[in-house]
Amino acid sequence: MNYGLEFTDTEFKLLKTFIYQQTGICLAEYKKPFLVSRLRKRLTSLRLNSFEEYYNYLTKHPAGQKEMMHMISLITTGKTQFFREKEHFEYLTNKVFPYFLKKAIAKQKIPKLYIWSAGCSSGEEAYSLAMVANDYFSIYPQWEIEILATDIDMKALNKAKSGIYTSKEIASLPSSYGKRYFQKVKGQDLFKVKDILKKLIVFKYFNLSTDSFIFERKFDIIFCRNVIIYLDLEVKQRVIQGFYKTLSEDGFLFLGQAESLLAFNNAPFLLFAPSIYRKKPLET
Ligand SMILES: C[S@@+](CC[C@H](N)C(=O)[O-])C[C@H]1O[C@@H](n2cnc3c(N)ncnc32)[C@H](O)[C@@H]1O
Question: Which residues form the CheR-type methyltransferase domain (predicted)?
Fold first, then answer.
């Protein structure tokens, strides 16, 4: 096939392997045209004549690391929205938060909730988590909520950090959330997340495929939705082991509604509710 720029099978293999090593994302043969269309502009702006030259730039040039960030941003799928798969947020409010509240009261411990949005894209998932958590816990002033939101796409992370969204992007928000947690940017069709939510979240780069799952403390809730679907079995295994290590003993793991751990014979998780997993059953 002629894509206007030759992309040989050898070049495709080189880039596919490199992308897999760097991100865990596995590109099937049919993704060749996708890769060409996403990377063509990079070759032009770097004045490179072939994908082999682009590969050499990525792996050998002093600016290769910076270019890799650019490439990751172009090839990842960042599709997301506020309150995507809204049943998960209802489940948090109806089951998960009351569970942790009851536990903290029973143990007379300093109540803290530590949440990880892994593969947060441009931040909509993390802010949705912050909204429901803040709504639920604001009547208990001692509660501390901390949300770590991570991704490998720096462009998406920068948008997440800015907390600025268009009216179209906030259209999926239930209107009461829009009014309480966003303020209009004067003279523009943009809305900014209020500080009350921003201060609950830390946005960071974290590569699920290569970074070590070492954190200061364990998470009570991990959201990793619509991310592992892009990873191959080997990387998925690694990620699942990482989540097992970093989730508290009675924590909750939320996957996307189209994802499951069914293919993993030895997954150390139990399906607790649709697309929601735990290390052990909820105590009653
Ligand atoms: C489709 S979005 C999902 C966003 C959000 N979790 C949701 O469900 O709406 C997938 C995200 O996973 C990120 N991602 C892909 N591979 C990753 C990796 N190895 N480590 C961290 N994030 C990754 C992508 O950059 C992208 O932002």
Answer: 1-282
